[in-house]
Each structure stands twice: as structure tokens, then as C-alpha cells.
Amino acid sequence: MVGMRSLADATPPIALGALDGRYRGAVAPLVDHLSEAALNRQRVHVEVEWLIHLTATGAVPGVRPLTDAEVAKLRDIPAQFDTVDIVELAEIERETVHDVKAVEYYLKRRLAAIVGDHDAVGLAELIHFGCTSEDINNLSYALMVQGATQHVWLLKAIALVDQIAAMARELADVPLLAHTHGQPATPTTMGKELAVSAHRLRRQLRRIAGADYLGKINGATGTYGAHVAAVPSTDWITVSKTFVESLGLRWNPLTTQIESHDWQAELYADIARFNRVLHNVATDMWTYISMGYFAQSRGQGTVGSSTMPHKVNPIRFENAEANLEVSNALLDVLATTLVTSRLQRDLTDSSMQRNIGTAYGHSVLAIDNVGRGLAGLDAAPAVMAADLDANWEVLGEPIQSAMRALGAQGVPGMEQPYERLKELTRGRRITEADLREFVRGLGLPADVEERFLQMTPATYVGKAPQLVDYLDN
């Protein structure tokens, strides 16, 4: 901007996006799994393990196996990968103009110090042997996404759902006037409604926890052509399968140059569905707060409004909504685009997969915000009770249902129960006295009449409190 100092040249560099700026603290654990540096570290890891696997299996006859000490030192390379290595790789890549080739050269530089100059000459040619870049990349991304899902996202998501479930149990018996289409409806309990959310979210978590992470290492067109041409005596299919499985991944036997990414699309669709259910939780909690059913705890150092001192805004839930929407926009485009590649391959997946971390980051940030928002709430049973007491017309449903059952049993005078209750209740509020008078004039059997004379909107909750117990099933 004219007349202003450029922020682009600031040291240290200023983050362009919110995840690496304002919200860094909430999403920092994902850097170990889904950053560009994490991608390069996993590439180093895969290349090292491939070299170890080739020598251990004797896939290339005449090559000596590595000693335990050499294997340990090789594995120490990715284990100790840090900022110095990041800088070195970047320097090599500026020369190669190829990220995976840079990893190959980076490892060859280190091999002599581990196995000796003489052996390094031969063993160096087994680094990246038979591989196309996608052999390394697909395995690296599978390990990255697996780590981010299992060690970051799932742990945070499970903790949040457990928090919602704990609230459900705590509020299992607190009566609540339900609303359908925004109108007063059959009462329930706050605990049962929270239990519904927890149950929905846990179902998605089970799908995500059971996700497959596929990988392949089969050459430039998925045929093992170079492998067989170089060493026809080796069972390369078995070598490939055992290697992929040794990494903790599921082997994909049929691919083009790329692993098809279908498993990624499936996983991202499941996480997006979790996000959508959580978005529903956020909007419902926002609505409950606006109705006074929850009070937001004071004394947390928050400012609700810059001009209205009385306000405590439900910002955690609003922030969560926005971040879930950003996350889902990215997850949806990942799921729809990664399953398509022109013929053997194109590079659209390369650019697309670099957005996985951002998609996960906005979901993690939303999970964090919902958790913090829930922690700042106190239920207001008195407000809920007041709403129930102002809506006696909701008892029209159980009364007409009982009349239907009695009519089916042959009890006289139970005709047109729905229509009679509709005439009493539709379009107007009725009082407790109105309802009691109506019940006494229906000609109900004495025990049924007494049951309805004792019933209140707050006691008309059916099995809602017991249904919360199904969260443990």
C-alpha cells in the first residue's frame, strides 16, 4: 500500500492465513503431520524404509544386508529431521527442481557416513530403486493423514463428544420444551437432546476410526515393469505388499501411476459429515443460549460487545460454525477431485493434497471452540420450566392419544379425539385450569382422568431420561 511499510518483508515472516497466525496454538499439533516439512520427513522415512526392505528381503541379489547398527542410523535420519534438514532439502530442490529427487540426493549424501564410502557406491543406487515419485508420495501422504487423524483429530473429537455425553447425563432429567419448526412441541429433556447429538457424532467417529489407509509401490504405471526388467527373479508383488504393510498401511494391488486416492475421499466425506453434525450442535446451542436455556459463565475475561456491557456473545459457537464451513468446503473439494486423474496421472492431486492440513486445521479449531463454548455454559432449569408452564397446550397430544387407545378398546364417548383437542388448543394458549376443566368433561375412565389431571408439561417427557443411558451401548 502506498506510503506504508511492506509487511511481506517482516522478520520473522508474518502468517498469511489465520491458522498459522491468530489460531496457531489450537492447530499446532497438526504441523507434525500435515505441513510441507512433515511431508518431506515422511518422504525421507519411506525412502529409508524402502532401502532397508530391499536389503533385508534380498530383493536385489548380491547386495549385502545392512547391519542392525546401520539400520538404526538410517532410521535416525527421519527421527532427527529438523529445521537444518528442511533448509538443506530446500537448497537441493532449487537445483533439482523436483521435490522427491531432492530427497533421494539428500539421503545419498548421508549414506557414506553410515555404511562407508565403498559400500555407499552400490547401496546408494537402491535408494528410490524402481520408484516413481508417486510411489513415495502416496505412502507419505497415507502416513501423514493416518497420523493426523489418529493422533490429533480423533483424540480431540473423541474428547469433545465425551464432553457432550457428560452434559447429557448431567441434564438427563431436566425437562425441556421441544420445538419443531420453531413451534412449541412435545416436551423432552435437555439431556436426551444432547444425547442425540453425542450419539450421532459417535457413529461418525466409529467410521473414521475404522478408516483404511491404502498405499502402493509398483512403478511408473503400476506394472512393476522396471523392477521385473532389472531383476526378473524377484517376486516384486510380494516385496511391494510386505513393504506397504510394514508401514502400517493397506496394500493396493491395482493402480495406475498413482494410488487412486479413493480411501482419502471416503475419509474426508466421513470427517465432513462429523463436521456437519457438529455444526448442527453449534447452531442448536446458540439457539438454546438465545432462549435463555443456558447462561454463559461470566468472569472468563471475555468482552461480549464493544459497546453493550451487558452482553456475553456466544462467539465460540459462531466461530465453530464458520470454521466447520471452511473445513467442509475443502474436504468436499478434496473428496470430489482426488478420485479423478487423467489416464495414468496428472498433477492436480499434488496441489490439492497440500490443502489437507488446512481442512483438518479448521475442523480442529472448530472442535476446540465448541468444547470451550460448552465449558462456559450453565444450564438454566428455571427458564426451561417457565417455558413449559406457559405451554399447557402441548398436553393435547397425550390426551388425544389416550382417547384413541380407549376408543379402539370400545370405550364410548371417545370419538374424534384429534379434532376435539385441535379445537381446544390450536392457535391459542390455554391455562392449566382450561386443560383440567377440559379433561374432566371428556368422560375418561377414572384412572385415566386422574393420570391426566396430575400430568404437567414438565412431567410429559416419556422415556427421555432413560434414553440417555443408551449412550453407553
From TrEMBL:
EC number: 4.3.2.2
Boundaries of every Adenylosuccinate lyase PurB C-terminal domain copy: 341-461
Top-level taxon in the UniProt lineage: Bacteria
InterPro entries reported for this sequence: Fumarase/histidase_N (IPR024083), Fumarate_lyase_CS (IPR020557), Fumarate_lyase_fam (IPR000362), Fumarate_lyase_N (IPR022761), L-Aspartase-like (IPR008948), Pur_lyase (IPR004769), PurB_bact (IPR047136), PurB_C (IPR013539)
Keywords assigned: Lyase, Purine biosynthesis
Reaction catalysis annotation: (2S)-2-[5-amino-1-(5-phospho-beta-D-ribosyl)imidazole-4-carboxamido]succinate = 5-amino-1-(5-phospho-beta-D-ribosyl)imidazole-4-carboxamide + fumarate; N(6)-(1,2-dicarboxyethyl)-AMP = fumarate + AMP
Top EC class of this enzyme: lyase
One GO term of the biological process aspect: 'de novo' IMP biosynthetic process
Keyword Lyase: yes
Pfam families the UniProt entry points to: ASL_C, Lyase_1
UniProt pathway annotation: Purine metabolism; AMP biosynthesis via de novo pathway; AMP from IMP: step 2/2; Purine metabolism; IMP biosynthesis via de novo pathway; 5-amino-1-(5-phospho-D-ribosyl)imidazole-4-carboxamide from 5-amino-1-(5-phospho-D-ribosyl)imidazole-4-carboxylate: step 2/2
Annotated family: Belongs to the lyase 1 family. Adenylosuccinate lyase subfamily.
Described purpose of this protein according to its UniProt entry: Catalyzes two reactions in de novo purine nucleotide biosynthesis. Catalyzes the breakdown of 5-aminoimidazole- (N-succinylocarboxamide) ribotide (SAICAR or 2-[5-amino-1-(5-phospho-beta-D-ribosyl)imidazole-4-carboxamido]succinate) to 5-aminoimidazole-4-carboxamide ribotide (AICAR or 5-amino-1-(5-phospho-beta-D-ribosyl)imidazole-4-carboxamide) and fumarate, and of adenylosuccinate (ADS or N(6)-(1,2-dicarboxyethyl)-AMP) to adenosine monophosphate (AMP) and fumarate.
Alphabetized PANTHER family for the sequence: ADENYLOSUCCINATE LYASE
Database matches in NCBIfam families: PRK09285.1, purB
Protein name as it appears in the record: Adenylosuccinate lyase
Organism expressing this protein natively: Rudaeicoccus suwonensis
